[in-house]
Amino acid sequence: MKTRYQAGKHTLELLLILLALLFIYPIYMTIINGLKTYQEVATSTSALPGKFQFINFAVVWNQINFSGVFINSLIVTVAGVGGILLISSTAAYQLVRRPGWVSNAIFLAILSSLVIPFQTMMVPLVKVAKDFHLMDSLYGIIVMYWGFGIPLALFLYHGFIKGIPRELEEAAHIDGSGTFGVFFRILMPLLKPITTTISILHSLWIWNDFLLPLITLSSPKNKTIPLAASVYFGQYTNEWHLAMAALTMAIVPVIIFFLFMQRYIIQGITAGAVKG
Fold first, then answer.
1. What is the tens place of the pLDDT at every residue in 73-124?
2. What architecture (CATH level 2) is domain 64-232?
3. CA distance 155 to 88
């Protein structure tokens, strides 16, 4: 019986290793091809470069003004995710703690936007954005990300808050805390696991998003990294080596952010598993 268990365990470990390699392979391809010449990429995408072309990163840095587009992406991502977290968490708290048909109607109305494809909203979105002077501006696209990101975040927060005992808040009210004090001092620390999850999901989405910046941002000074890197994919020419170098530079901050936030996910799971 023990031998069977060990064999099954090793088989599962092998399958998980193969699955991990499957997910790592695209990152490997991106980095390796970013260190090649164009001829080497055209010849074989999977082979190692004959000589590492670190000059590709310097060329990309200067050609697309990487420092500028990096700051734009950082501003849009941080402000977008921050607004989504603040608005959706406070809204979910009020909707959960004030039950009734009005709260249910608001909740369902917000969730209904999740089933509407983005492609069907592109033309109306551009028209409304023009009317409110939100086109071709960082603050405008941040507001749009709030609108598109809040429904999913609200749904996740809503389910999580329902599992938190109301007695904790009542005890804080008895001690003299107001509504804001109860939310930010009592509830927000308890929401850390779901807040971390939402932060990671929405940060990856906003940082890597291409379609919304494409239809709303036109000035070179407002471009984000995916939009700026698209210059290497043309109708007649494709500079694959520079495109891969640009993508490599774009994914490094995301990987660092994910590794940094991962420990908070583990802490949240551990805290939720231990009683007392």
1. 999 999 999 999 999 999 998 998 888 889 889 989 988 888 888 888 888 8
2. Orthogonal Bundle (1.10)
3. 8
Distances (CA, A) of 211 to 112, 205, 208, 230, 256: 22, 11, 10, 11, 24
Q: CA–CA distance from 241 to each of 50, 52, 62 (Å)?
A: 14, 11, 15
Nearest to 186 by CA among 206, 172, 199, 166: 172
Give residue limits of the domains in the chain: 64-232
pLDDT in tens, 3-61: 665 667 778 888 888 888 888 888 888 889 888 888 888 888 778 888 888 898 999 99
Distance CA 173, CA 178 (A): 6
Nearest residue to 27 (alpha-carbon basis) of 258, 255, 262, 261: 255
Q: Give the 3-state secondary structure of residue 70.
A: helix
- CA–chain centroid gap for 69, Å, is 17
